[in-house]
Amino acid sequence: MFKFKITQRVVEVSGIKIGGNPGENPPVLIGTIFYHGHKIVVDEKKGEFGRDSAEKLIRDVEEYSDKTKLPAMIDVTAGSPEAMVRYLDFVASITKLPILVDAPSIDIAREALRYVADSGLNERVIYNSLTYKSRDDEYSTLREYRIRNAIALLYTDKILDINARINAFETISKKASEFQIVNLLVDTFVIDIPSLAVAIKTGLEIKSRYGYPWGCGAHNAISAQRKAFKERFGKEGLESSELSANLVPIVMSSDFLLYGPIERAREIFPAAYVIYTSYRYLLRTKTPLIEI
């Protein structure tokens, strides 16, 4: 288990603390709802969906979070501005959990953040996400609508180059500071199996050099190859592969995890609970840790 030599930043969003040394604060588990192809969505353009089914999924997350004492957030994505506003309005009305505004375009983001500001949800949302390619108008939109929390996605064309990811982080963090985005979480970017290890190594570098909270969408290591995994290993093999990918970052000090479809809460919360509980007991024994 690791202990970082430099002071670690702890970001607090709607009462949930993210960051610190491993074991100091529990990992925050974030599931995505209304994603492309989600069965509960009836019309992606208009944002029509099965409200009872959506509420059940969110209640399940709340239940697992309560049982494990691991904090949760809801990542909301959409295919149109109209849909995003409808989804955000629904989620905000039925849960007090923090919400990630996962906008695939600046047009969708602008409408979403206008709604957030008008509804007084600024302190409860996290913008997902800024990249090194984000232009000033995107940063300006966040500043205009008083969005202080954002994820820095370390996307880079050089997928296996850790230095390129670090450079992306430095670019984003500098811009974020200029535009008064004070709470920055770092998504170290997973797109396939080889990039998973690179993302984890990058996360360790981010915490050891800069002290920022990090996490990733580790499930992406498998999701791009779900069909091939299912054909080769069967349904159970596919699910165990996704779970193992999601757990590795938590073992390796991640402060949050984008675990993919919200339905996976039933698996990831108990599994992450085992890791975090084990680490907490280790801290109580005052066992010397690996300093980096």
Kindly describe this structure.
This is Tetrahydromethanopterin S-methyltransferase. Belongs to the MtrH family. Keywords: Methyltransferase, Transferase. With 292 residues, this protein is an alpha/beta fold. The protein has one domain (2-291): Alpha-Beta Barrel (TIM Barrel). 47% of the residues lie in helices and 20% in strands. It has helices spanning 51-68, 81-94, 106-118, 136-144, 162-178, 193-209, 220-223, 226-251, 265-284; strands at residues 2-3, 10-13, 16-19, 28-33, 41-43, 48-49, 72-77, 99-102, 125-130, 149-153, 183-187, 214-216, 256-261, 290-291. It has an 8-stranded parallel barrel with strand order 4-7-8-9-10-11-12-13, surrounded by 8 helices. The chain has a two-stranded parallel sheet with strand order 1-14. Helix 1 runs parallel beside helix 9 (265-284) and helix 5 crosses helix 6. It is globular and about 55 Å long. The protein starts with a strand and ends with a strand. The model has no long low-confidence stretch (mean pLDDT 96).
